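Margin note from the TA: students keep mixing up input and output lines. Inputs are the sequences; the output is the structure of the whole complex. Example:
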Amino acid sequence: KAGVTQTPRYLIKTRGQQVTLSCSPISGHRSVSWYQQTPGQGLQFLFEYFSETQRNKGNFPGRFSGRQFSNSRSEMNVSTLELGDSALYLCASSLEGTGSRAFFGQGTRLTVV
Amino acid sequence: DQQVKQNSPSLSVQEGRISILNCDYTNSMFDYFLWYKKYPAEGPTFLISISSIKDKNEDGRFTVFLNKSAKHLSLHIVPSQPGDSAVYFCAAIQGGSEKLVFGKGMKLTVNP
């Protein structure tokens, strides 16, 4: 079974631009969550999608958005990029249900210059 | 407000000895706890979990202990191996949510 796939692996963008990151979950997984990892803040929850609906949202500004498609693939978008958005963005997929363990992709390393 | 805390940023142990990684939490609504291991440039890998109705869960060399009254959990690795060297994250889930709340991680180094 293929794992969680994130594309691209690395990205360099300029301040003010926007970026879209993609995540393909494990086959059969319907929940997709996104996390931001930075050296100072650690791993922070961005949002979670299930059956194309956002179920949970973390404390991030509205510049961060996402969506999920009918095949469970998900994208996240960051508009008007800031230097502080430089981070490793991780996607995780899981089966529905409390306590289900999440499987993470390798992440997309975004650098904003 | 950090709800999951890993107060020690790093730990160094000798191969073959026990590694004990600690984690504290403040939210009494958390009912499921997980440990993840992370290598540089890779996503976290699930290690072991424990439900709040248990106080111990074991999987091979890994054992997680939960002390609900103290809001404390720990991960024991016995025996430690050089391949265990990585950053370990403690995470918690509140019932009905898929949102993982992570600690800031602890770097474990196992010396040969």
